[in-house]
Amino acid sequence: MWVNRYASSSVIYAKLAEKYAQLDKIDNQERTGNFNKVDRVELSTAPAQYDEQDYHRVLNKFQQKDNETRAHEQAHAANGPTASGIVYNYQMGPDGKLYAVGGHVRMDTSMPKDPQAASYKLGQLQRAASSPNELSGADAQIARTANLNKMLLHSLGESNAS
């Protein structure tokens, strides 16, 4: 029984060595360029059919969205304590360039123990979340939460003072 086990493992190792040799041969062929590649891209010889006005209209929309997105995220970052830099989501425009079509900035939501410092920071978070002209759903939620937490903080401070 032990002999068969060793014999079968040596057969397996021999087959593995054969497969490794085949893979090495393929790698060498790819490096030297003697490999027949199946993937081909055939470009049409017909002239491109597009309307120049449509091209510029779409390009202007990409540029406008990029400007709006950058201004929106920079307004958040400029008006509050951030925990990271701005992260943009990009999409390729018709001219082959990348345009920002979305983004986010992480705000530092850690709260100081001092009630006055916490109130100040909640005010910053509220201003940062509501600073852009057009609020996203997430922006509005953050602004509401900061406002509610600030009111809660003030009510706790008033009840402790009594």
Please report which band the strand proportion falls in: under 5%, 5-15%, 15-25%, 25-35%, 35-45% or over 45%.
5-15%
The tally of beta strands, per DSSP, is: 2
Rg (C-alpha, Å): 31 Å
Instruction: Give the ordered list of helices and strands.
Output: HHEEHH
Query: Low-confidence parts lasting 5 or more residues at pLDDT below 50?
Result: none
Provide mean pLDDT, rounded.
78
InterPro entries: SprA-related
Pfam family, one: SprA-related
Protein name: SprA-related family protein
Organism: Candidatus Marinarcus aquaticus
Could you characterize the architecture of this molecule?
This protein has 162 residues and is of the alpha+beta class. The protein has a domain at 52-161. The protein has helices at 2-32, 52-78, 115-130, 137-161; strands spanning 82-92, 98-107. It has a two-stranded antiparallel ribbon with strand order 1-2. The protein starts with a helix and ends with a helix. The mean pLDDT is 78.
Name its key features.
162 residues, alpha+beta, flat, SprA-related family protein
Secondary structure: elements and pairs:
Blueprint: H1 2-32, H2 52-78, E1 82-92, E2 98-107, H3 115-130, H4 137-161
Antiparallel strand pairs: 1-2
Helix pairs in contact: 2-3, 3-4
Pfam family, one: SprA-related
InterPro entries: SprA-related
Protein name: SprA-related family protein
